Amino acid sequence: MDSTPDTPAGSPPHPGERHTVVDSTAFAPGDDQVRPADNPAHVAVRLESLRTRCMGEVLEALKQERRTVRVAPYVLSAPGDGRRQALEQLRRSVSEAPGWQVAECSFSDGPHAPFGRRSGFTAACRSAVTGSAHGILVAGRAALTWDNSDYERLIRYLHRHRRFVVFASQLGAR
Predict the structure, then answer these.
(1) Domain spans, the chain
(2) Topology (CATH level 3) of domain 38-171
(3) Residue 80 has pLDDT above 70, yes or no
(4) With 70 as the cut, is the pLDDT of residue 144 above it?
């Protein structure tokens, strides 16, 4: 088998050489960093594992500090009754989780807002990072992004600030 050095992303391989993308932000082997060539099913499992592990670490620290967990609801929905109902449903899901409460503010964006340009989601992250909430409560991953790299960056960003994303379906299971 031909073995050639890896080339940086965007560099064309020389004729006859194998092209491998090298992610300059890659973590050590064995870490749960998403790599472009990964099987989508494995990526989804790994990202869910990363999200729940990061969330678990934050929750354990809050438990040790004997603090009530506060989450800020976020929905990606058109304005109107549907959005209000979705936010209310998220708020109700928190009532089923002992030791959890809803933060003072909730956040939303329209359904067609691109992930990097959602003012409501940016405000939700800012609210969490500045201490108004420990986590961002969403109905599911579809409210965030399906881009694995963006999703992983979000999880890691929040975790660095001792914050997390939680899905409403997890609250009843806690």
Answers:
(1) 38-171
(2) Rossmann fold (3.40.50)
(3) yes
(4) yes
Q: For the whole model, what pTM was predicted?
A: 0.75
Cα dihedral sign, 25-29-33-36: positive
C-alpha 48/C-alpha 53 separation (Å) is 8
DSSP string, 101-167: EE-S--EEE-TT--GGG-HHHHHHHHHHHTTS-SEEEESSGGGT-S-HHHHHHHHHHHHHTT-EEEE
Q: Do residues 7 and 20 touch, judged by C-beta distance below 8 A? A: yes
- Cα–Cα distance for residue pair 97/69, rounded to 1 Å: 10
Q: Please identify which residue in the block is written with the tokens 């299971």.
A: 173
Predicted pLDDT at 97: 87
Lowest mean pLDDT among 6-10, 58-62, 89-93: 6-10
> What is the model's pLDDT at position 28?
37
The residue assigned the tokens 């599911």 is 140
How large is the C-alpha radius of gyration of the chain? 19
Label residue 36 by pLDDT band (50, 70, 90).
Answer: low
* Chain length of the chain: 174
Output b/e per residue, 1-29; b: 16+ Cβ within 10 A. Answer: eeeeeebeeeeeeeeeeeeeeeeeeeeee
Scanning the structure block, which residue is given the tokens 């989601």? 121
